[in-house]
């Protein structure tokens, strides 16, 4: 078993867990030529890097002056998107920018403003499914659900929401740790299209947006000067569409795939839906949709027995940390009773995922309705297709059949 990542090996994309596990045990802090980065894989080390951001680490690429070194080329739409994103923005700008969206996504705001829309969307999507007839979970549930929620959050109804999803898929390819494998033109075109579309939405709907929507907050931010340019507002929208769709789109089928491996979990959830919140956390730990996040060292640091120099890039292997036996008993077992469950699927520190409460709400609501309607489900595992990517992984096909509960 290799103890570093071989990005040319298709097995890595089919099932990354064995190699991530081996890497964490035998090579927990190592330099990868292929990624041009250190790869950190133990839970304690990843958490320490996430939390010591202000002291020791800046966000991805910033310290290296991304615009100068950008592998995509200075001035491209991808470079603008990456450079302007919250996740790559350091203090002092980060809190100023995050304030334009964060108040809409607190646990309380999410429950108050989105429980109803998520519930209605889930019911309508599940109503459209026919028992004993195969459907694709992506087309039928896990693509439309987060898209409906994100566009509601932003505050407009795009004519072609699916187009946003296609752009998000192509754009998030640029988050691969192994940049050479990326189709740069495709990613850049997607970033440009998304940027143009969202700028139009901001200009068209911003002035009349409803309070409580992102468009309203951004429009106010531009008027009041808390946003310094229209571009800052457009990137806020771009990051919500790209971060808020593909990740949630992936975790839903990933949960069903995990339950085919551990079928008793479905039976337990049917018998006791109170277990759903704990189960959702465990699905998130077990099948983290973002296996990596990244930082750059801003001072010389020692992690494990390795010296990392200021300016060097660091990939944090969330997927490996979430399976660290030093923190999780029997980490390769899907245990919905796990408590505590300190997974780091949503990152941590000042960059902790902004949409995590929304993602949880979507998962829990879907599971609640699925277990109340369906007696059983069957995944056509031989026809499940995973995308060949590891930055934000995902599926391109997930065929499934369900049998309704009787009575
Ligand atoms: C299962 C679903 C999701 C997963 C696994 C996920 C994962 C992550 C991760 C790993 C980070 C980076 C944390 C870091 O580097 O410290 C992040 C940041 C972020 N996520 Fe999510 N995410 C999910 C859903 C969402 C949703 C639904 C939204 C928006 C509606 C969203 C918006 C964001 C934003 C804006 C950031 C940047 C935050 C910052 O840098 O301050 N995410 N997410």
UniProtKB/TrEMBL annotation:
Q: Does this UniProt record's set of keywords contain DNA damage?
A: no
In the UniProt record, does the keyword Heme occur? yes
Mind telling me which InterPro entries this protein's record contains?
Cyt_P450, Cyt_P450_B, Cyt_P450_CS, Cyt_P450_sf
Q: Which UniProt keywords apply?
A: Heme, Iron, Metal-binding, Monooxygenase, Oxidoreductase
Pfam families linked? p450
Source organism superkingdom? Bacteria
The family this protein is said to belong to: Belongs to the cytochrome P450 family.
In its UniProt entry, what is this protein called?
Cytochrome P450
From the broadest rank down, the organism's phylogenetic lineage runs:
Bacteria, Bacillati, Actinomycetota, Actinomycetes, Micrococcales
